[in-house]
Each structure stands twice: as structure tokens, then as C-alpha cells.
Design brief:
There is one protein chain. This protein has 316 residues and is mostly helical. Among the domains are: 49 residues, no CATH class; 127 residues. It is 66% helix and 0% strand. The protein contains 15 helices and no strands. The protein is elongated. InterPro entries: TPR-like_helical_dom_sf. This is SAP domain-containing protein. Keywords: Signal.
Length: 316
């Protein structure tokens, strides 16, 4: 009887162990997959390649700091907005023609050629329509969408207005840029999701020599920075977008005095917390030497803490 009971216990224990092994084995596999993917995500931003030749798509995918780095490597000027830096690289690699093709630049047609093509005998045409109707209609849509906070739709319509209907004699008015920018900047850049459209608007305003309001400039830069990797917030915004905004604001009329010490201090702390010690020191020095700001002790502490963790700056 005892022998039979012992055999039954041994068989039940063996089946439990086997079932437990089968249940936990897939979990360990899933865990290893997750850890492997997390490592690849963590190391992805650290890999940067500098090639002697780049394609049009590769240049367009570069972020602000990557554009600056490529320009420095090639001996080009690394100062300016995102569009300016990208344009230098495209011109260096001989890709300027692709920019013109992307914009859909149509060949210029003279009025004489149009008249010759449309010439008819015995018929006289008189066009009394408003030549600016399409421009005014789309501009009205931009202002209407901005007024109700539909920043995505307003951004798309502003892009279409600027690309298809804007000319040197009839540019997009400053009020349209400001209306869309205010819609993008609302609710902390709409949870940082509207950071990139806001950056593009700031750069377009700087290129058009439009003055940028101080409160909007500081709000856009401050709210583009978060606590995530690269200064992002839920994978939106980040340090590159903030630096591009700062460059655009500084290039705009009266922009050199628009950004406050709090905005620069937030940028320095975010750079330091992200491990970009050299860039944090450069911006901090710019604050003190060029802007004559007195950063709070917390800003110095963030940079010092990041330098202490870095092998290259531990002695500093």
C-alpha cells in the first residue's frame, strides 16, 4: 500500500514539473524578445553615419542636430534653420534638381504663348473673375480652422496655400501664420503632437521676415521639451525640434531678444539630462556670455551632474 502511494506521488509530481516547464518556457522566450528589442531601441539614437554621398530621402530624414553634424563634417556652414541646413546638403550632393521637381515647379509660360494657344477668330473673351479668388478662399479656410482649434487641418491648408498660391507679390500674410501657430501652441503644443508643425511655421515666418511674438516663441520651445528620451514627450517633440525653433526665432526680426532665460535654462537642463554634455555647456555659455543671463543654480547643477557622469567631462 505504501509502495503504491509513493508511486502515485512521484508520477503526479513529475507531471506538475513538466506542465510548469511548458507554461514558463514561452514566457522566458517573450521576455528575451522584449529585452532584445529594448536594447535595439536604446542604441538606435547613438548610431550616426557620415557618408560621402547621401540620397535625397536620407537628407530629408536627418534631424536638426544630425544636419548640423553633416554640415560640419563636409566643411559647410552649420548655422541656420532646418530648411537652410538641408538645402546646403542637397546642393552639396547635387540634389537641388530633385527639390525643384518635388515642389512641382511648372515651366514659365509667357502671356504671348497663352494668347497664341487660345486665339480664336471672331470671338472675344473677357474674364471678369477675381484672379485672387482661390487664394482668398483658401486663406479664409485657414483662418476658420485655426479659430476653432483644428490645428491639423489648418496646418495642411496653410501648407497648400504657401505652396500653390503664394507668390512674391502675394505672400501668405503674417496673420495666417500666427493664427495657425496659436492653434498649434494651445494645450502645450497639443501634448507636443503639434511641435513639428509649429517648428515649420516659425521657420517660414523667419524666412518671410515676419516678427514672432515673444510669448508664442517661448511657449513653443518650452512645451516641445519633455522627460522622455531625447527630450521627447510621448515620442513627440524633443531637443532637435527645440533647437530648430530657437534657431528660427533668433533669425527672425527682433528675435535675438525674444527667448527668455527660463526657456534657455529648460533647454540646457534637458540637454544635460539626455547626456549631451558638450551641447549643454555650449548653450549655457551662450546664455551667460552672449545673452548676459544669470541661470539659476539648478541649471548649473544639472550640467555639473551630467558632466560628472560622463567619462570625457568628469574632470571638468
Amino acid at each position: 500500500m505504501r509502495l503504491v502511494t509513493a508511486c502515485m506521488l512521484i508520477s503526479s509530481t513529475t507531471s506538475l514539473v513538466a506542465n510548469g516547464f511548458q507554461a514558463t518556457s514561452p514566457l522566458s522566450v517573450r521576455t528575451s524578445r522584449v529585452s532584445t528589442s529594448s536594447k535595439s531601441v536604446a542604441t538606435a539614437p547613438m548610431s550616426a553615419t557620415t557618408s560621402s554621398s547621401m540620397s535625397y530621402d536620407e537628407v530629408n530624414k536627418l534631424a536638426f542636430r544630425a544636419l548640423q553634424s553633416e554640415c560640419k563634417e563636409l566643411g559647410l556652414s552649420a548655422v541656420g534653420t532646418t530648411a537652410a541646413l538641408r538645402g546646403r546638403l542637397l546642393e552639396h550632393f547635387g540634389l537641388a534638381k530633385e527639390v525643384a521637381l518635388e515642389k512641382g515647379a511648372a515651366p514659365a509660360v509667357t502671356p504671348e504663348e497663352i494668347e497664341e494657344l487660345c486665339a480664336t477668330d471672331g470671338i472675344t473673351f473677357c474674364d471678369e473673375s477675381d484672379p485672387d479668388f482661390d487664394f482668398k478662399s483658401l486663406l479664409s479656410d485657414v483662418m476658420q480652422k485655426s479659430s476653432v482649434g483644428h490645428w491639423k487641418s489648418a496646418t495642411r491648408k496653410l501648407k497648400k496655400l504657401n505652396k500653390q498660391y503664394s507668390t512674391s507679390d502675394r505672400p501668405v500674410p503674417r496673420e495666417a501664420y500666427l493664427a495657425v501657430l496659436e492653434a498649434c501652441a494651445a494645450n502645450r503644443n497639443n501634448g507636443a503632437r503639434a511641435t513639428e508643425p509649429a517648428r515649420k511655421i516659425l521657420e517660414d515666418m523667419a524666412e518671410s521676415d515676419y516678427e514672432i511674438p515673444t510669448d508664442l516663441a517661448n511657449s513653443c520651445v518650452m512645451n516641445s521639451l519633455g522627460e522622455g528620451p531625447g527630450g521627447t514627450h510621448d515620442q513627440c517633440g524633443g531637443i532637435d525640434a527645440a533647437l530648430a525653433m530657437v534657431a528660427a526665432v533668433e533669425a527672425s526680426p527682433n528675435g535675438s531678444s525674444s527667448l527668455t532665460d527660463a526657456t534657455y535654462g529648460r533647454l540646457v537642463s534637458t540637454l544635460a539630462n539626455d547626456g549631451a554634455v558638450e551641447e549643454a555647456i555650449l548653450v549655457l555659455r551662450f546664455m551667460v556670455v552672449e545673452k548676459l543671463f544669470t541661470p539659476p543654480l539648478g541649471t548649473f547643477a544639472d550640467v555639473a551632474k551630467a558632466a560628472a557622469k560622463s567619462d570625457d567631462h568628469a574632470e571638468d
